[in-house]
UniProtKB/TrEMBL annotation:
<keyword id="KW-0482">Metalloprotease</keyword>
<keyword id="KW-0862">Zinc</keyword>
<feature type="domain" description="Peptidase M16 N-terminal">
    <location>
        <begin position="54"/>
        <end position="199"/>
    </location>
</feature>
<dbReference type="GO" id="GO:0004222">
    <property type="term" value="F:metalloendopeptidase activity"/>
</dbReference>
<feature type="domain" description="Peptidase M16 C-terminal">
    <location>
        <begin position="209"/>
        <end position="381"/>
    </location>
</feature>
<dbReference type="InterPro" id="IPR001431">
    <property type="entry name" value="Pept_M16_Zn_BS"/>
</dbReference>
<dbReference type="GO" id="GO:0006508">
    <property type="term" value="P:proteolysis"/>
</dbReference>
<keyword id="KW-0479">Metal-binding</keyword>
<keyword id="KW-0732">Signal</keyword>
<comment type="similarity">
    <text>Belongs to the peptidase M16 family.</text>
</comment>
<dbReference type="InterPro" id="IPR007863">
    <property type="entry name" value="Peptidase_M16_C"/>
</dbReference>
<dbReference type="InterPro" id="IPR011765">
    <property type="entry name" value="Pept_M16_N"/>
</dbReference>
<protein>
    <submittedName>
        <fullName>Insulinase family protein</fullName>
    </submittedName>
</protein>
<feature type="signal peptide">
    <location>
        <begin position="1"/>
        <end position="23"/>
    </location>
</feature>
<keyword id="KW-0378">Hydrolase</keyword>
<dbReference type="Pfam" id="PF00675">
    <property type="entry name" value="Peptidase_M16"/>
</dbReference>
<dbReference type="Pfam" id="PF05193">
    <property type="entry name" value="Peptidase_M16_C"/>
</dbReference>
Length: 453
């Protein structure tokens, strides 16, 4: 069954397809089949606990191979912020058996076979991925497996990448909205590591060392802390055989992967901050403490965000943009592994009044808390959301990316069940979570006030 047809089944957009038989999971020596749902088969490599998610697509012409490590900026502490991101960069500098000196580096191989590849770092995970033809898959699996435990990590590589990372940091600093969001998160989360930005704080980046990065690598880069995701044109028996061949000899982590045990204390009152510097327009962010992605309240918070901000008929758009008080207005729940924020964002025109925009935003939030929403409101926003999900899951790379997001949130089956959960949300649910989470004493408000250069 093709990925597109699977998407239709998952999103209940093509009811005739829902009864189509899914391919049965395969039996491969060395693997244990864990579970299957929505055309996705989960396996565990017996030798070391590596998780594999297989989504074969007979209609695809390429395959996406992703390795997701369950380590992100949430696993960092003061003095190590930015290590996850720096290590992501250094993973492209070569491993023991695949490097530039040997003439078989990752870049050279992927360019030769016409593949695309990249990596990203987030709060909850780091992932490495490539999209390529089936005939080139074995070679890519071999390279990824080698750099899981045999990364070179040389001082000269760190020195060269520091320039790249500094430039990336500066781009974020030069974006007023990005800088404001970082300050809001740092103010809202004072104990939990969501406090610090994914790219890290400047002083920690500048003091990064190979020894420190090696310790970080040796702590988190192990098969039992990773998930391999295969989507597209591959033969499950063959691909799993390659995974066993190249990953099977890697041992489990010698010690337990450190867990994040810090919980954000209850907020006792509203917090505010103002960021003033050169800029053309102002912006406003209100962040509320929310639950984790797997919390039963998460679907209702997602719907709440859609009702507030999806489309020109949404509550915030009509109240703020149609009235020219703001140029943009959005809201949404950040579904993270640990409790994440529900965020309202507003972009202001030149010389706009932050006080006015904030007052209007609060009025709309209070309206939902007192008056609620209708079933028609929910259906109106879920229609475009369904279509957006089809677009975001169209193609093997897009499907792999969304599946990886669900893995990082704590359960890959959310990829399959997400829309079903949203469809079950009632108007009473939306009003209840608005009253529970959109509370002033649990809010952090940030203003960006532009000043002349």
């Amino acid at each position: 069954m093709s990925v597109r047809r699977l998407i239709c089944t998952w999103l209940s957009l093509c009811p005739l397809i829902a009864g189509t038989a899914m391919a049965q999971p395969v039996e491969v020596p060395g693997f244990t089949h864990v579970r299957s749902l929505g055309g996705i088969d989960e396996y565990r490599l017996d030798a070391n606990g590596l998780t594999v998610l297989a989504v074969p697509d007979s209609a695809a012409t390429v395959v996406s191979f992703q390795v997701l490590y369950r380590v992100g900026s949430r696993n960092e502490a003061a003095g190590t912020t930015g290590d996850t991101h720096l290590l992501e960069h250094l993973m492209f500098k070569g491993s023991q058996h695949y490097n530039k000196a040997l003439g078989n580096a990752l870049n050279s191989y992927m360019e030769r076979v016409g593949a695309t590849f990249n990596a990203t770092t987030s709060m909850d995970r780091t992932n490495y991925f490539g999209t390529l033809g089936r005939d080139a898959l074995e070679g890519y699996i071999a390279i990824e497996a080698d750099r899981m435990r045999n990364l070179l990590l040389r001082p000269e590589d760190l020195a060269s990448e520091m320039t790249v990372v500094r430039n990336e940091y500066e781009r974020g600093e030069n974006s007023p909205f990005t800088a404001l969001f970082q300050q809001v998160m740092a103010t809202a989360y004072q104990a939990h590591p969501y406090h610090h930005p994914t790219i890290g704080w400047r002083s920690d980046i500048e003091h990064a060392s190979v020894d420190k990065l090696r310790r970080f690598y040796d702590t988190f880069y192990w098969p039992d802390n990773a998930t391999v995701i295969l989507v597209g044109d591959f033969r499950p028996n063959q691909a799993l055989g390659w995974v066993r061949q190249y990953y099977g000899g890697i041992p489990r982590a010698p010690q337990a992967i450190p867990a994040v045990t810090t919980e954000e204390p209850s907020q006792q009152g509203p917090r505010r901050l103002v960021l003033k510097r050169a800029g053309a327009t102002g912006s406003l962010i209100i962040a509320f403490k929310g639950p984790r992605a797997l919390d039963p309240d998460a679907p209702a918070l997602t719907v709440l965000g859609l009702v507030l901000s999806q489309g020109k008929s949404s509550r915030l758009y009509r109240a703020l943009v149609d009235t020219t008080v703001a140029t943009q207005a959005g809201a949404g729940f950040h579904a993270l592994r640990d409790p994440g924020p529900f965020v309202v964002t507003i972009s202001l025109p030149l010389d706009a009044k932050h006080e006015q925009a904030e007052k209007i935003a609060w009025t709309e939030l209070e309206r939902i808390k007192t008056e609620g929403v209708t079933r028609e409101d929910i259906q109106r926003v879920l229609g475009p959301y369904r279509a957006d999900q089809v677009y975001q899951r169209d193609g093997v790379r897009a499907t792999s990316a969304r599946l990886g997001n669900a893995v990082s949130q704590g359960d890959w089956t959310r990829f399959v069940t997400e829309l079903e959960e949203l469809e079950k949300v009632t108007p009473a649910d939306v009003q209840r979570v608005a009253r529970k989470y959109l509370v002033e004493n649990q809010s952090t408000t940030g203003w960006f006030v532009p000043e002349k250069s």
